[in-house]
Amino acid sequence: MAVLELVHYGNPILRKKCKPVNDFSNLSKFVDDMYDTMYEEEGLGLAANQVGNDINLFVIDISHIDDNEFQRLFINGEIISGSGESYFSEGCLSIPEITLEVKRPETIVFKYQDIKGDWIEEEFDGLLARAIQHEIDHLNGVLIIDRVPELKKVTIGQELRKIKENSEIKMRQKSENQGLVI
């Protein structure tokens, strides 16, 4: 198991709609690495594109907050419906040190596949519903900054620019290092 490198705001993969998972045979190690990365970064959830992988998969673990919960894996998920509404302060591992009040449905019906490829449809509410919506947004190229009024984005503009610049520098360095022959 390994901790994967997070990608940050400014990396184009965060704005892509991720491809569906078609081959379920070799996901176990990647999923274990996703959990390791999420725990290392102290997150509640992590989408595959946040570690540079263009597939529709995310993990969530809120068991340290809700004793009735456990590690969750969602593949090829789709929100079928939502009801109610709530506001909550959300952070994002790909936009470090920024939290924003985001309005989302309180309850959702969510259809997804498990590690074996079996389809499941469940209703979720509270923090788990919010985390699912946050991660499914990632897989559709949507970030928390897209869920707040324009005025709020202006107030964090300088921080966003700095995160984006650092992300672009990191991508450039990675690209240059891949071109080296050692």
Mean pLDDT: 94
Strand content: 25-35%
As residue ranges, the low-confidence spans are none
Per the principal axes of the C-alpha atoms, what is the gross shape? globular
Structural class, from secondary structure content? alpha+beta
Number of strands: 7
Q: Oligomeric state of the chains?
A: single chain
User: Secondary-structure element sequence?
Assistant: HEEEEEEEHHH
Helix coverage percent of residues?
A: 25-40%
Query: Ends: how far apart?
Result: 26 Å
Cα-based radius of gyration, to the nearest Å: 17 Å
Strand line-up across the major sheet = 1-2-3-6-7
Number of H- or I-type helical stretches: 4
The major β-sheet equals: 5 strands, antiparallel
